[in-house]
Amino acid sequence: MAVNFEKYQAMLRAYFRVRFFKTARVDQKKLLIIQLSPLGDACTLIPFVRQAVEQGYQTDLLVGKGLAELWRHFTGVERIWEAPHRDWEKLQRDPVATKLMEQQYHTVISTSIQPLAAWWASRPSALIRLGMIENNRYYKGARSLYTAVYNAAPEEHVTRRFQQLFKMAGIKTELPGDDPAVSGKGYVLLHPGAKWKPRRWPVERFLQLAEYLETQDFEVRMLIHESEKDILDFFTRALAERKGTSILLTRSIGDLIRAMEHAAFFVGNDSGPMHLAALMRKPSIILWGPGNFERIRPMGSGMRVILHEIDCRPCRQYDNRDVCERGINECLLSISVGEVIKALNALTAGR
Q1: By percentage, how much of the chain surpasses pLDDT 90?
Q2: Are residues 24 and 155 in the same domain?
Q3: 267-299, pLDDT tens digit by residue?
Q4: Measured by CB atoms within 10 angstroms of the end CB, which terminus of the chain is less buried, N or C?
Q5: Which CATH number goes with the domain that contains 261?
Q6: C-alpha distance from residue 18 to each of 7, 99, 144, 293, 351 (Å)
Q7: What does DSSP assign to residue 198?
Q8: What keywords tag this UniProt record (predicted)?
Q9: How crowded is the C-beta side of 198, counted as CA atoms within 13 Å?
Q10: How far apart are CA 156 and CA 148, in angstroms?
Q11: Do residues 127 and 40 both lie within one domain?
């Protein structure tokens, strides 16, 4: 209960700050954008931020921990803060929060649906604060910290949500288009990981896919983050005597960007790297599991999604991220290696 008390106390203080603190008028193109979600949402938002920057908006960013390099690489924005943690008790004394209280903006746009994002939006002085709710849910007081909110439909794609938020700020943006995918030369990048284990196609099938690609004279790289110990151990053993496939280990967002830059094709699960592949226009095959396809599917003409209909999708795995709620992970197990090979042959034809 102590954590909840600190949270409500912080939100109450924020409410009085935004309601009674006078804000000086500033250039209407001075903008702060807040995105606290992980890699996937960040990659989806980046095209809209780029458009704002191209239209002359003086844009600062507050982003999730470890993602500043991603934002700087793809938007060119220089002033970027990383939200350090989610400890409500420590937030009041956090140096980033203190620094933000010194800033003045015309508009703050919070693109994350969570009370913490609303609290961060209350830190700087601003004439307008815009946020988002979903299906009329008000998220424990977060609505009270915004000038206005966009009420998203539950199945509305995140790109549409972001576009509407920017429209409320007077920023005209275009939805990401179907620009031609760019493959070029390089390896086939296979990504067997995902933060939520029910979103992972079996590692044994990724190995079979790699074996097939080797017979077709492709170089293959297994993209694995150092934290994915189980996947790393499996492929370390499985690839010990192989030459055509090797492990590409990442430790930072910079490592991931460089790995994707040198890939000709990408095959992976519903995950953050999938959205990075879409952002970088890599021809891709995505193996779709329990995620909400309508809301978070990757966009772009180069993204080919293999999805089998199942009545329990979307399953969010909030209770246990390591186990399918039905216990069988049918959505992914129903995708065969042969099906993926067929899609991959079509994708790589004429290489």
Answers
A1: 64
A2: yes
A3: 999 999 999 999 999 999 999 888 877 888 898
A4: N
A5: 3.40.50.2000
A6: 17, 17, 9, 37, 56
A7: G
A8: Glycosyltransferase, Transferase
A9: 23
A10: 19
A11: yes
